[in-house]
Amino acid sequence: MAHAGTLEISNLSKQYRVKGEALPVLDNISLSIRPGEFISIVGSSGCGKSTLLRLVIGLENDYQGEILLDGKKVVGTSLERGIVFQEHRLFPWLTVEQNVAMGLLNADLPEAEKRASVQEHIELVGLKGFETAHPYQLSGGMSQRVAIARALVNRPEVLLLDEPFGALDALTRAHLQQELQRIWEAEGITAILVTHDVDEAVYLGDRIVVMEPRPGRIKRIVDVDLPRPRDRGSYAFAEIKDDVLAEFSDKPRPELLDVPARDSVSEWQFSW
Fold first, then answer.
1. What is the spatial distance between Cα 165 and Cα 10, in angstroms, rounded to a whole number?
2. Which residues of 95-109 are buried (b: 16+ CB within 10 A; e: fewer)?
3. How far is CA 101 from CA 48, 106, 230, in A?
4. What is the dihedral of CA 78, 82, 86, 87, to 10 degrees?
5. Which keywords has UniProt assigned to this entry (predicted)?
């Protein structure tokens, strides 16, 4: 089982240069993520969600503030952090087994141990029997499973997910959300999910980080104190979902209707 990482983001700010002008993207982001925690990040387009993941994965180093994994500064990419993008980004000329093995390309492990880990993670994502299939022979959901296996095969401390199910149909997305929860629990690692889907964020997250745009800031953090597996049809689930959605509305939340009490049934008038 992988070691779950502790991630500490402190006073993180990021800007780009556009036509010679500074364009702030992230402003003073601070977030502590506990080992084994599942964090969902939601926000409108342009709030810097994906930029935040790029900084955590180490694809960019030009920023202000600190990103620490287990107390050590994040510098560049590392096998300690795996990522899954919205597009599966599989190599079309490689088989499922070979695509997953690409996650171990720079791992200092004996070949026998690499083969065992590849097979273990193909089984973990439910693709046993498809080892020799190529991406064109897989559905979109199956391809994303391969991408998840590739991100997990080197047993990272943190799994980052950037809209991993955004391109899938609703039924496939709901099924893979269930599968992702199972995989996360089986691996026991820290996970950070960026999504536009508030339902998905509530279903998967221990906490939901709500961001506001231009530049991206943390507006609010919502605890999701619901037992797993979560019932999407429950009142408690709907209440948290509505609470998060209200953060993106310009209108105040409507109050519940105050229905006057009646002393007896005879006071009601019925029309048949």
1. 29
2. bbbebbbebbeeeee
3. 31, 10, 33
4. 70
5. ATP-binding, Cell membrane, Membrane, Nucleotide-binding, Transport
Question: Does the pLDDT at position 268 exceed 70?
Answer: no
Length of the chain: 272
pLDDT, tens digit, 9 for 90 and up, residues 154-209: 999 999 999 999 888 999 999 999 999 999 999 999 999 999 999 999 999 999 99
Contact status, residue 126 vs residue 145, Cβ threshold 8 Å = yes
Q: What is the residue whose two structure tokens read 């809209």? A: 163
Pairing mode of beta strands 38-43, 190-194 = parallel
**The token pair that represents 119 in the structure block:** 């097979």
- At residue 107, the pLDDT reads 86
Is domain 7-80+156-250 in CATH 3.40.50.2000, yes or no?
no
Which residues, in sequence order, are CB contacts of 272 under 8 Å at separation 6+? none
Q: 27: how many CB neighbours lie within 10 A of its CB?
A: 18
Cα-Cα-Cα-Cα dihedral sign, residues 98, 100, 103, 104? negative
Tokens read off for 129: 């029997």
Beta-bridge partners for 211: 43, 218
